[in-house]
Amino acid sequence: MDTVDKIGYEAVIGLEVHAQLQTQSKMFCGCGIVFGAAPNSLTCPVCLGHPGALPVLNRRAVEYAVKMILAVGGEVRKHSIFARKNYFYPDLPKGYQISQYDSPIGLGGSIQIELPEYSRDIELIGIHLEEDAGKSIHPEGGEGETKIDLNRCGVPLLEIVTRPDIRSPQEAHRFLSKLKLIMQYLKICSGDMEKGALRCDANISLRRRGEKSFGTRTELKNLNSFRAVERALAYEIKRHAAILDAGGKVIQETLLWNDDDQKSEAMRGKEESEDYRYFPEPDLIPIKLEQSWIDEIKSDQPELPDARRERLAKEYDITSYDAGVLTGSNELADYFEAVAAQVEDTKRVANWLMVDVLREIHERKLEVGEFFITPNMLAELLCSLESDIISGKMAKEIFREMAASGKSAGAIIEEQDLRQISDSTKLTAVIEEIITQEAIQVQKYREGKRQLFDFFVGQVMKATSGKANPEMVNKLLKEKLDG
Ligand code: ADP
Ligand code: MG
Ligand code: ZN
């Protein structure tokens, strides 16, 4: 928000998000949905718009829409209709897109976003169902022909539109990650922006601080990552501010974000809805929903990210921040709970997950579900630590070794004889021997050179090949040197 504060304007941002629903088949035909399938292999007369072919609505797509609307606390409308949005484009063989217009399936709702200093709710205007268009594949470098892949035609999309409630590029980023997380918890969309499963257009305008009315907006398209959304908005804020400062007027238009050159480029003037000649889709009957079906979906809803974060914080006595990290995916939260159920110190489990487990997973570019150190294996390691069989330092080393070899903690402890020495008679004997050998250092220590304490700890560790229980060494050394 810095830039905006400095220039005395407030940013006003509204997002229009398109999310591909992970149904088996398309929205109005039986064609499958497979990312990366051979071009035009997943098509039929319906999704190619052949004359006379009729669409049939996919019930699963409606169910997913209802799941999402319920998850954000919106109103599921029991009666909604499809509309034709007419426009010509090579990747739209029908010449129109089946969408929803003035009678969408979902109204309102909100999504809470968390930032370091505050959290707030972003209100939604609504959620509606529509079908995706195909994809134009332009030649690299501009030479050659543009090709069309119609596999994506008719893939179900949810359009989620926010009120102009967002106030900074960072908030826009948080909103999108939260939206993605909710959809992942619901298992209705992968949220993968790079693969186009989640797409976002951003509307932005500026107004002077304290002003009530909105300024003229521009709309940014072609935002292919969360970072691109943030960068594009920051760029537009600066551009608008410069125009307004110079006494000029922002032109309402649609812009393409060029992430390579880090700038926005004019694409076309803004279409008005009249340009699309919307009218009710004559080939489909209205969507009518029974309350009992909505209730059934409601009772099947999984625990959602906010609820799970709150529960984990309470149940396992960890900070809300830590619980936020651990609920960053359903799989990670499952992993945490599976380990925490077997280990006394749940805060320690949280730390191990956030530091050691996430590091290994990131370094190996794995998904949580692919990580071969299972929750039970980590629990075994942490239980050995808890019962003082190994020290904290050994535990870290054993974990590294588990990650490298796939072996269990127990096997590594046995093989390398890693049990720490917690026998006070044994340790006392070692310490007494060192005190005799290092008489001069002992004298210096007793005369006040206290920093020598670590030297003695080091000597004990050396004599025991690092296996002495560090806490006991500290305690026994203090007794022998000071007592
Ligand atoms: P359109 O008909 O152009 O699609 P909508 O009213 O549906 O316009 O709004 C599209 C998006 O633009 C919404 O997310 C909305 O919040 C946002 N929006 C509307 N007016 C402004 C504005 N002045 N500044 C920023 N965003 C805006
Ligand atoms: Mg709109
Ligand atoms: Zn088809």
Which terms would index this structure?
483 residues; alpha+beta; Arc Repressor Mutant, subunit A; 3 domains; ten-stranded mixed β-sheet; 17 strands; 19% strand; binds adenosine-5'-diphosphate; binds magnesium ion; binds zinc ion
Short note summarizing the structure:
The chain has 483 residues and is of the alpha+beta class. The protein has helices at 2-7, 59-71, 169-186, 226-245, 291-299, 305-315, 320-326, 330-340, 346-363, 375-386, 392-405, 409-415, 424-437, 439-446, 453-463, 470-482; strands at 9-20, 75-76, 79-80, 83-86, 96-99, 106-107, 110-114, 119-131, 135-137, 147-149, 156-162, 198-208, 218-223, 253-258, 263-269, 279-280, 287-288. Helix 3 runs antiparallel to helix 4 (226-245).
Would you give an account of this structure?
The chain is built from 16 helices and 17 strands. The chain is of the alpha+beta class. It has three domains: 2-293, no CATH class; 303-415, no CATH class; 424-482, Arc Repressor Mutant, subunit A, CATH 1.10.10.410. The longest helix has 20 residues, at 226-245. The protein is elongated, with a radius of gyration of 30 Å. The mean pLDDT is 93. Adenosine-5'-diphosphate binds next to strand 1, strand 11 and strand 12.
